[in-house]
Structure formats: C-alpha cells, structure tokens
Write a structure and sequence with these properties.
Blueprint: H1 27-33, E1 55-57, H2 78-82, H3 87-103, E2 108-110, H4 133-149, E3 153-154, E4 157-159, E5 172-174, H5 177-184, H6 186-195, E6 199-202, E7 206-207, E8 210-211, H7 216-226, E9 232-235, H8 243-248, H9 263-271, H10 277-294, H11 309-322, E10 324-328, E11 342-346, H12 371-378, E12 383-387, E13 404-405, E14 413-418, E15 429-433, E16 437-439, E17 455-462, E18 468-476, E19 480-484, E20 487-492, E21 510-516, E22 522-529, E23 538-543, H13 551-560, E24 564-570, H14 591-601, E25 605-610, E26 625-628, H15 636-645, E27 678-680, H16 689-695, E28 712-721, E29 727-737, E30 743-753, E31 766-775, E32 780-788, H17 789-792, E33 794-796, E34 801-803, E35 808-815, E36 818-819
Helix pairs in contact: 1-9, 1-10, 3-4, 3-11, 4-6, 11-15, 12-15, 13-14
The structure holds beta-D-glucopyranose.
C-alpha cells in the first residue's frame, strides 16, 4: 500500500477541558493568548488555569532552545529522508522524534518541511524531501501520523510556495491554479486530510501577491473549511506583519512573542469593528483545542538530552537506507572488509563530515561519528591513511579540536553572560561551551526570573599545532570583536553592518590575519553585545586551517599508494542553509580539481557526495563509483561503513533529478523573478523530472534513480481496477533479482496522460505510487501498489477542484526514466 499510515489521535483528543474555558476569558486575556510569550512558548494565564505551550524546531531533531546547549539526537536531513522512499521508516523516525520532543519539554515539533525542491540551489532543499509532490506527501503523512501518535503535535511548513530563500520575507510566488493545487498544495492537502496536524506554519512569502499569513482564500476557505483543518495556523517566525490582514486572513498564532502586530493593536481593530470578536474566538478556540490535544504540564519542563542507543541505531539504519548509489562501474562497491589492505580516505568532509544543514533545522547533536572514524571502524584490519586535499568552507571553521582550553584545562571556551551591555558587574551566568559559536537567543526557563543578558564574553587559550600566519574570522548579529592576548585583531565592532549571516540579521564575516607560533599559548577573547531590540542575537567565529601549497598533489599521492581511495566531497551548513539560496551549483573550493587528481591517481576511487542538494560533477564520467550520502545525521560514519562494506544495501533513490548544469533546470530563466520581487512559476506543473523528460534534457540522473548491490529488474506489470472508493487501481509489479546477493528495489508507478490530454504544459508522467521491496538472491518478488484517486486528480477550472481524468495509463519503473516496457 502506498498510503498505509492512518491518523492516530492521542487519547485526549476528545477532551474539551481547555476549549470550554473560552467563555470565561476576557477580551484582553484572549488577545494575549494568540501572540507568543517569547521565542518558543505561548502566554500562560494561571488565573484561568491555562498553561504555556512550547514548540521547538524541527524537523530532524528536537532542538530545544539552542542557547541552552542541551544536546539532541540528529537524524538525517530532508533530502536524505526523501531518498529512503520509505514511509514506514519515516514513521519510526517520527516516533523517536516524539520522545526527543518530550525531552525538551515541548508540545509541538516544527516540521516536517514539505515545500518542494523547485530549483537545485534552494537554500532549504536539504530540509525538504523531494521535487515531487507525491513522494513528499506520502512521507509527510507517515511523519505527522507517527509523531502525533506519540503525543506530540506536528507542524507541516511552510504553507505555501516557500520554495526559495531568495528575499523570502518579500518575494511573491506566483503560481497558476493547476500548478498550485496539483503540485505545491498537494502535500499539504494530503497531510491535512489524512493526519489532522495540530499546527501548520504559514510561510514568509506571498502567494500570488497576498502574504501567506493574510491569505484568506488559502488559509480559511481552502485549508480550514474545505480540507477541515482544525489546528492552529502559526506564523513563521516574524512573518506576521499586518494586524488586520493577518487576523482576517486566517492566521491564529503570532510567533515569536512578545507581540509585534496584535496585542493592543488588535484590541483597537476589534473595537473599531475591523476584526470581529468571533474571529478572535475562533483563533483562541483552536489554541485551546491544541492544549486539549497536547495536555501541557502546568509548569514548563526543563530541557534534557539523552544519547539513546536505540535512536543511534535508527539514525544509522535510516542514513544507510537513504544513501544513493549513482553509479558503480566494475562493481567497485562493496569493498570486502577482510580483503582490502589499505584505504586512502581523502577530502574536506572526510575527517569532519557534514551531518546536517544550517539554519533553524540545526540541532546541537550528540557526539557524531564522522566518515574517517566510521571507515576505521568498518575496516579494522586495513591501513587507513587520511589527507584533506583542499578545504570547502565559506566562513572560517571552528578552532581545531584539542587546541582551545579553558583556564581550568577543559576543552572549549568559558562563556560569561552579563546583564548590562558593557560587560560590567558579575556575570549572570557562566559555563564552558564548545568551540566557535555563541548565541544569546531564545528563552531559558532557568533564567525566567533573572535578567536577560545583553553582553557576552568567551575566553579560551589557544595552543596552535604549527607556527604561521592564520586568518581569524567573526560574524555577528550586533557588534563583536576578537582579541588575541588582549590585542584587538578582528574588529566587527566599530563599523558593524548587517550582511548575510544569521538569516540576514547578522553581518558578513570580517577577517584579519595573525601570526601564531607553535609552543605558545594565546588568550583568545570574543566579546559580543546584543543590539537593542534585536530579533536575533549571536556571534560565530573561526580560524583558517592553512593547507600546504601541494595539498592536492599530496592527497593524490596518498590515494595512489592505497588499494582503494574513498573521497568525501561536499558542502556544509554555511553553503546549504536557511536564509539564502546558493548562487551556483559548483562544489565549493578546489574540490573538482581534487577529484580529478585523485581519480587519476587511483581509478579504484569511491566518491562520496556529502551534500543536501545537487552539485555539478565535471569529473563524473571519469568516476567509477559515486555514492550520495546526503546530510545523514550523527551516525554518518558508521552508516557509510555499513554501505561501503555491503553490510547494508544502498537502497536510497534520488528524490530529485540531478542536473548536469545549472542552466538545465526548469526555472533557470525565471529565477529569481522580477525586480519587484515577483517570482513566476512559469514551468508550471513541469517540476523536476517532468521538465527534463518533456524537453529532452539529459541530467546526470533522473528522479527515482539509484543502484543496489543486486541486479533487480521488472518482469511484468498488471493494472487492476479497484472497487474501493478512494483507490483507482492496484498495480501489481513482478520483479526478479539476477544477482547472488539479496537486494532491494524501489518500484515506482507513474501516470501518463492519454494522447488527447497531452498538452504542452502537461507532465509526460507523474509519480502516483511506489513501494520498496526486498528481493532475495536470485529470487523474485511482487509489489502491489494502490494508486489513490487523489494522486491522479487534476485541477479542473470549471469546478475549481481536482478530479480524476477520464483516461490515464499507469506504468511502472525503477526511475522516472526507466519505465518497464
Ligand atoms: C523558519 C522555520 C522555523 C522557525 C523557528 C524560521 O526562520 O523558517 O522553519 O521553524 O524559524 O525557528
């Protein structure tokens, strides 16, 4: 079955205890409830017995307040999850996330992100599942259903058309009706109707000229009335910008708090009759209904982190399940752990891999297992040599592990927070923190009663491993400076300006040079002051790791001397992050040159792509084996070990079409839109593979592609009409595996339009069902896939709704471009 996850509501669903309080609340109390108290909680009204509700990001872990430094389990990011094509596994992950969310004392987890990967450079592609609405919908239904079964609310986001980070507060996603309903709304429609999410997040952007938070047609008429959404529409953080427009446009909760648009202004609007009290009551009723569902504890709970073996095992399995083997000429993989004598592990993401992307999806993970460590674990008898080859950072990386100590000799910096903005007086809080990042954002329950700190100082003692010139870098949301032995070195203080960092609230990185000598100990001090009224507060700093001039040649030499080379290329969370799109598809730094050199030195090179979105691979034809690891979470290294040794089958399939060049993607000509921030979705329904197939453009690999270690093929396809109401047909696909080892295949069912319906803008085929199947060595298997009417239904302008076309053919394949004949 493709849609096996059904809605489970917690046992308290029927309770009306909070909702029934509405009649006893005053106008002021009701208004106070619908704007947040702080970054993560709503307002409590103790005298009315109404506690605070707490939400947390989301979606790959439950972070809690970042400023608390409490660790959380880090699961694979969206594109890695999309690549699993496995709703059952996603449900398992969401079940674990429900436990994680409770550890943070939160009631709603802000996820899943179900916008679509419309362009290859979208900053949040890594956080979303796929280019495809159906795959996204199936996984989202599984995620939300299981999370809520675990007693934690989900918050599918960002409703809708938030498919770019370019000017996301201001851009208007201009989407025609058919495309909007069949493509971008489809995951939201499915998840709303099938799982009844407790919350949905309204996007920053406008849709066809109307701000998402004010879009009554989408929020009220469609989501609440037509689809029956009975949860809370929460604004994306700071997206609420209009008192009356948002109130009448269907927004229920302004976040974060304290209120900027409602509060006293909403009261005035109600008194003037611009917003009805019934409208307010509807919002309050929804919030109280959410409390009936989530049963918050009367007091906020402290945040804790638990490094659970079971969660690590699940992360490891899920990471491997999502890895996509793009090519494997000469069966370079799997490597025999008992036979391989030496391995060169090379690349900027080898020693420290990228386990997640950047922005609000970031979690303070439990200690991660990086690729080099994982490969060492998997090949205990092999001689493993490492060379970095080149760097790929955008902002300077943190101080290397083991080089920064506090006064008392512990790893990291000593952080002191001060009440005043001039570091005067005794610190209000002090603790040891990790390297390279300081945040003053959010709410900490410990500090509820205490003053909010306004300045922060980090002090650490740096022992460089080698002498020489280094670059030091610092960016911050507010003035900051970095001193070495009390001498000002990086000045982001006297002339602080906003730039690209911290979602546009922080500066650009300011850099300065300093010569260090090995054997000396240097005092590093970073001072930061929160700007008055700032929305975000934080600073990040780093130091260059200077590579030798011949680092690439050296890496090639290490590769040549080994039996096998594993080259770990990729990006990181400064490149792939919320807040901005990438500007091109190239791998950062000199990674392409490194790949060429390593491939020339050792043809038995396995290339691992540690990315969340596609990048250009000019050396692709020369590589025998390319495995995409995505941003796979904290068990990255062990999952790589599992797949590379064949302990686990690489059973991921591409959740998007991987273009050869940026110029080939469907919105290349129209991105990012006009100067007045209108972004036309001119490619219409031809998102992703549909475009490449329709236009005959050859990508690196199509949607749905991925190899296993076996040899699966489709033998026959039978389509049977269904007598069930919501199911159109059942497609039965027989498969065989011609290899001596068991394998796994992802069978995909596509709908193709009849000739008479095939217009210029009609997708040549679209995914309507899929199933992951195990096939034994030299064995056979049958996959039965139900195709739902709702997946086939197309927009009909006359009835302003989606209807099933009268004729459509169903075909099956192993990728969108590998259809069984
Ligand atoms: C993001 C949301 C996130 C929220 C809270 C926003 O910047 O767009 O996805 O849930 O912040 O952190």
């Amino acid at each position: 079955m493709t849609s096996s996850t059904t809605a489970h509501s917690p046992s308290v669903e029927g309770s009306n205890a909070y909702r029934s309080k509405i009649g006893h609340l005053t106008l002021d109390q009701k208004i106070s409830l619908i704007s947040g108290k702080n970054f993560w909680t709503t307002v409590a009204i103790p005298e009315a017995g109404i506690p605070q509700l707490k939400v947390t990001d989301g979606p790959i872990g439950a972070r809690g307040d970042l400023a608390n430094h409490v660790p959380s389990a880090c699961f694979p990011s969206g594109s890695g999850i999309g690549a699993t094509w496995d709703p059952q596994l996603v449900a398992e992950i969401a079940g674990a996330l429900a436990e994680e969310t409770k550890l943070k004392g939160a009631h709603v987890l802000l996820g899943p992100a179900i916008n679509l990967q419309r362009t290859p450079i979208g900053g949040r592609n890594f956080e979303c599942y796929s280019e495809d609405p159906h795959l996204t919908a199936e996984l989202a239904v599984a995620y939300v259903g299981a999370l809520q079964s675990g007693g934690v609310g989900a918050c599918p986001k960002h409703y809708v058309g938030n498919d770019t980070e370019y000017q996301r507060f201001l851009i208007s996603s201009n989407i025609d009706d058919a495309t909007l309903h069949e493509v971008y709304l489809y995951p939201f429609e499915r998840v709303t109707k099938e799982t009844r999410p407790w919350m949905i997040m309204a996007a920053y952007n406008a849709v066809n000229g109307i701000q998402a938070c004010s879009h009554r047609a989408l929020n009220v008429d469609l989501l609440k009335k037509e689809w029956g959404f009975d949860g809370v529409i929460v604004s994306d953080w700071f997206a609420a910008r209009n008192t009356v427009g948002n109130a009448n446009g269907g927004l229920d909760l302004e976040m974060p708090g304290p209120s900027r648009i409602w509060g006293a202004d909403l009261k005035t609007a109600i008194e003037k009759g611009e917003v009805s009290e019934a409208e307010l009551d509807n919002k309050v009723g929804r919030l109280l209904h959410l409390m009936d569902r989530s049963q918050p504890h009367p007091e906020l709970q402290h945040e804790t982190g638990l490094d659970k073996v079971e969660h690590r095992a699940l992360i490891r399995r899920a990471a491997a399940e999502g890895m996509v083997l793009l090519k494997n000429e000469g069966k370079t993989l799997p490597l025999d752990a008992n036979a391989v004598k030496s391995i060169a592990v090379i690349g900027p993401n080898a020693e420290i891999g990228q386990i997640m992307g950047g922005g609000s999806a970031f979690v303070n993970s439990h200690p991660p297992v990086h690729p080099l460590e994982g490969i060492r674990n998997a090949f205990p008898n092999a001689d493993i040599q490492h060379a970095v080859g080149c760097t790929n950072h955008k902002f300077l990386p943190s101080f290397p592990k083991g080089t920064i100590k506090t006064e008392s000799g512990e790893e990291g910096f000593w952080e002191e927070r001060f009440e005043k903005d001039d570091f005067s007086g005794e610190p209000v809080a002090a603790k040891r923190v990790g390297v390279g990042r300081a945040l003053l954002a959010g709410v900490e329950i410990d500090k509820e009663a205490g003053p909010e700190p306004k300045s922060l100082r980090l002090t650490g003692h740096f022992s460089p491993r080698a002498s020489g010139l280094r670059e030091l870098g610092l960016f911050s949301a507010g003035p900051a400076r970095l001193l070495v032995d009390n001498e000002l070195v990086v000045d982001n203080w006297s002339d602080w300006k906003p730039g690209e960092s911290f979602f546009g609230f922080g500066s650009d990185e300011i850099r300065a040079l300093y010569t260090f000598e090995a054997g000396h100990r240097y005092k590093i001090t970073v001072e930061y002051v929160k700007s008055a009224g700032a929305i975000l507060a934080g600073a990040q700093f780093g130091i260059s790791t200077k590579l030798e001039e011949d680092a690439i040649a050296h890496a090639a030499g290490v590769a040549a001397a080994a039996d096998r080379a594993i080259l770990v290329l990729g990006s990181n969370s400064d490149w792939e992050t919320e807040g901005h799109d990438r500007t091109d598809m190239a791998l950062p730094g000199e990674q392409d040159a490194l790949a060429e050199a390593v491939l020339a030195a050792n043809p038995n090179t396995v290339i691992l792509m540690n990315v969340g979105s596609p990048v250009t691979m000019p050396w692709y034809e020369k590589a025998r084996t390319v495995l995409v690891t995505w941003f796979p979470g904290e068990e990255m290294g062990n999952a790589i070990g599992d797949v590379v040794t064949g302990q686990a089958e690489p059973s991921g399939r591409l959740p998007f079409t991987w273009p050869k060049r940026i110029e080939d993607h469907p919105c290349y000509d129209t991105y990012p839109g006009t100067e007045d921030l209108q972004m036309p979705y001119s490619e219409g329904r031809l998102i992703g593979h549909r475009w490449y197939e329709k236009k005959g453009v050859e990508p690196i690999a199509f949607f749905g592609h991925g190899l296993g270690y076996g040899d699966a093929s489709i033998e026959s396809v039978d389509v049977m009409e269904s007598s069930k109401n919501d199911i159109h047909s059942t497609v039965s696909v027989s498969l065989k595996n011609a290899a001596d080892r068991a394998t796994r295949a992802v069978v995909q069912v596509y709908a193709e339009p009849s000739e008479k319906d095939a217009g210029e803008d009609t997708p040549p085929r679209k995914l309507v069902g899929f199933r992951k199947v195990d096939i034994s060595a030299n064995g056979k298997a049958v996959a039965e896939i139900d195709v739902l009417n709702t997946s086939l239904a197309e927009w009909n302008p006359e009835i302003q709704g989606r209807v099933v076309p009268s004729s459509v053919s169903l075909v099956a394949g192993l990728s969108s471009n590998d259809i069984a004949k």
